[in-house]
Amino acid sequence: MEQINTFLMVGRPGSGKGTQAALLAKKISAPMFSTGNEFRSLAAGGTYLGGRLKSAMERGELLPHWLASYTFEKVLFGLAPEDKIVFEGACRTGPEAELLHEISLWLPRPYKAVYLRISEEEAWKRLSLRQKESGRADDGETAIRLRFEEYKKKNETVIKYFSAVGTLVEINGEKTVEEVHADVIKALGLS
Question: What ranges make up the beta strands (E) of the chain?
Fold first, then answer.
């Protein structure tokens, strides 16, 4: 069995990708890279790019795939073959998923995409609660609606792609944080 060293958390907004990515990274002693956190950091930077990012994110728009691709490529290309990494928020479009797959074959960096499956209703509940707690602009009602539309248009093709190439692991994300984490660890053979 090949040694998996690259892990991606994928799923709709509010599915727990950030939480589960952090737990997995801790479990396997690997760094976690969040494209969302990277974008928020750039948006706060006061540059022209930062201003464009900030306004797009506040509206709930999915950012250009070339920007997301650049951020995860930069990370992947800096890793040694044996280094492990957990990505959260990477590969939100078909072209990004295909690019990651192509890179992983060439380097080689075997990977698994962990799909945290939750209903839209559950995601609404979680994001509404998170908005009250964190005040994130992209968790407002209008932004959530747009993020869900973007997810349906673009992210669902990512799930289908990873399934077709045999790298998808599907997890019921509607359980408790601890139960989902246990299911992720078991499904990845890391227990």
Answer: 6-10, 32-34, 85-88, 111-117, 168-172
Question: Is the pLDDT score of 137 beyond 90?
Answer: no
Confirm whether 1 is domain-assigned.
no
The CATH number given to whatever domain includes residue 91 is 3.40.50.300
Q: Distance (Å, rounded) from C-alpha 175 to C-alpha 183?
A: 10
pLDDT (average), residues 147-160: 84
Task: List, as residue ranges, the binding site for AMP.
Answer: 35, 40, 61-63, 136, 147
* Known binding residues for ATP: 14-19, 130, 175
Tens-digit pLDDT profile for residues 66-110: 888 888 898 999 999 899 999 998 888 899 999 999 999 999 999
Q: Is residue 38 part of a domain?
A: yes
Binding site: which residues? 14-19, 35, 40, 61-63, 130, 136, 147, 175
Q: Which domain holds residue 78?
A: 6-186
